[in-house]
Amino acid sequence: MDFEEILTHRVSTRKYNDRMPDEQTLQKIIDAALLSPIVRWHKMHLSIVTNQDAMNLAEEATDEFFKGQRHRPHLYGAPVWIILSGKKYEEDDPDSTRLKNENLFWNVGSIIENMELQATALGLASCGINTAVVSMLGRPDVKKAVGIPDGYEALASVIIGYSDEPCPEREVKPDLIPVSYIK
Ligand SMILES: Cc1cc2nc3c(=O)[nH]c(=O)nc-3n(C[C@H](O)[C@H](O)[C@H](O)COP(=O)(O)O)c2cc1C
Fold first, then answer.
1. Where does the pLDDT of residue 95 fall: very low under 50, low under 70, confident under 90, or very high at 90 and above?
2. Pocket test for ligand 1, best of 105, 130, 169 (most atoms within 8 A of CB)
3. pLDDT value for 180
């Protein structure tokens, strides 16, 4: 796949088959995260979750958090769930805290996007997942089960796996984000 094909074939996929990506494939996705454009001073951690019990616990916590407004499977039966965690800044002076957190969120986007694009390039499907991330608030049992280090919070996550769903080439929708030129 050339780069433009990767961009146009990446799509959020919500149906997966049972095939487990091998270790080499997963390592390439982790490497993509490590190659992303990130500022270096944030403490972050990647949890690569393939344990079904841990995923089931997260499904249950997500059900509880959304109180019937959203229904499982929140992780769509994907065999791999990658969670990015880190430390948000809450103390010091408000200006620098805001600056640090904005940088952190920018890092998070870069890391997740690099992993999704690498997954697409390797013939895998993916989907960013926020529901199961926010549902970890107040659930130390889930955080522990998915390997989030003490003092860290889940920041973002992505599911990865193989899918039999079609992924046709997507078209650019110019209305999605208005563009202006200053010449
Ligand atoms: C920050 C973020 C959080 C998301 N959380 C979820 C989620 O919890 N569940 C879900 O099914 N999709 C989730 N998505 C996927 C979006 O719904 C999807 O990216 C959007 O509909 C655009 O579709 P596309 O990725 O196929 O272009 C999330 C995407 C982003 C960027």
1. confident
2. 130
3. 97
Question: Which domains are present in the chain?
Answer: 3-176 (3.40.109.10)
Shortest CA distance to 29 belongs to which of 129, 125, 115? 115
Taking the whole predicted model, whether its pTM rises above 0.85 is answered as yes
Rounded to whole angstroms, the Cα distance separating 68 from 42 reads 35
Cβ of residue 9 lying under 6 Å from some atom of ligand 1: no
CA distance 51 to 77: 12
Counting other chains too, the contacts that 64-73 makes at CB distance below 8 Å and 24 or more residues apart are 64/135, 65/131, 65/134, 65/135, 65/137, 66/131, 66/135, 70/131
CB of 11 within 6 A of ligand 1: the answer is yes
Q: Is the CB of 129 under 6 A from ligand 1?
A: yes
Distance from the CA of 14 to the center of ligand 1, in angstroms?
Answer: 10
- Angle value at C-alpha 49, between 112 and 164, nearest 5 degrees: 75
